[in-house]
Amino acid sequence: MDLSAIDPVILIASLMVASTPILLAATGELIVEKSGVLNLGVEGMMITGAICGFAASVQTGSPALGFLAAMIGGAALSMIFGLLTQVLMSNQVATGLALTLFGLGLSALIGQGYAGMKPPPTRPLDLGVLSDLPVIGKIVFSHDAMVYVSLALVALVWAFLRYTRAGLILRAVGESHEAAHALGYKVVRIRLMAIGFGGAMAGLGGAYLSLIRVPQWTEGMTAGAGWIALALVVFASWRPWRLLLGAYLFGGITVLQLNLQAAGVAVPAEFLSATPYLVTILVLVLMSADRSRAALHAPADLGKTFHASS
Fold first, then answer.
1. Rounded to an integer, what distance in angstroms lies between the CA atom of residue 161 and that of residue 174?
2. Which of 64, 71, 231, 259 sits most deeply, having the most CB atoms within 10 A of its CB?
3. 166 CB neighbour count, 10 Å cutoff
4. DSSP line for 88-123
5. Collapsed DSSP state (helix, strand, coil) of residue 35
6. pLDDT tier at 289, thresholds 50, 70, 90
7. Which residues contact 78 (CB under 8 A, 6 or more apart)?
8. Residue 49 in contact with residue 75, Cβ under 8 Å?
């Protein structure tokens, strides 16, 4: 066992990369849940985005078009959920679970011809002298554009929910769709837009996995990342900045367990691989222990179906 081989600077830089796909998906789901909708299909939308982005990137040679295709694929899948739950009034939990199963099957079908291929590389941003700064340059200024996009997205979502009229309307729909409807707001339309945004962000997170984090296509490569994103929204008490903290916590544990395995720590590799998920469950249990605090920030109408006749 040689723990001296673990470089803390590289460890911190790596956790930012490992956290990005989960942060993107969780930020999208935060907006969805703020509108009062519970979409458990994040895993299915992520894996669909992963294969759509990978296929488009390989076919066009452009990672940017790959990310765009991933957003379209994730949003399209989310619209199926939106149609079923907001128009046809199906149960949100059951529909979300079905969406995950559908996404996993669809991605496996589309991805049959892409196994073993490599996508065009996505280069880190050239930030000049900033990248050459000691320690901080490697940690903060040596990443690809999507890492910074995910951070900017958290800030934009926070500002949108806190300072804009549209954000206030979205939160009002999530708190009481009947009251929002009585004030003349189009509840179904607002929720469909939120669902579409959440699907696009989940697809973007999936594409980050297949194009940058693990630049190849592997069936089921999201490996539960969508479920972790769902858990992080609860962990963050539906607050954007806490979402960032939770994503980096999970990413840090993921990277740490990989480094511990490489260092030859005398712990079964299977246990180390399960550590990020065990820690996530533990945090959720601790958060749930104080029900009043968790409920304080949860949208009041989360998961409830809106009937226009009401």
1. 12
2. 71
3. 11
4. S---HHHHHHHHHHHHHHHHHHHGGGGTT--PPP-P
5. coil
6. low
7. 39, 41, 45, 99, 195, 196, 198, 199, 200, 202
8. no
CA pair distance 310, 300, nearest whole angstrom: 17
Whether 22 and 251 have beta carbons less than 8 Å apart is answered as: yes
The torsion angles phi and psi of 242, rounded to 5 degrees, stand at -70, -30
Angle (CA) 188-227-44 rounded to 5° is 65
Share of the chain above pLDDT 70, in %: 89
Q: What is the pLDDT, as a whole number, of residue 130? A: 80
Q: Over the stretch 36-47, which tens digit does the pLDDT of each residue have?
A: 999 999 999 999
Contact status, residue 158 vs residue 241, Cβ threshold 8 Å:
yes
The confidence score (pLDDT) of residue 279 equals 73
How far, in Å, CA of 231 to CA of 26, rounded? 9
**Which pLDDT value is given to residue 73?**
96
Looking at residue 263, what is its pLDDT? 65
Question: What single-letter amino acid sits at 211?
Answer: L
Cα distance between residue 77 and residue 207, in whole Å: 15
Please provide residue 304's backbone torsions phi and psi, each rounded to the nearest 5 degrees.
Answer: -90, 140
The answer to whether 225 and 22 have CB atoms below 8 angstroms apart is: yes
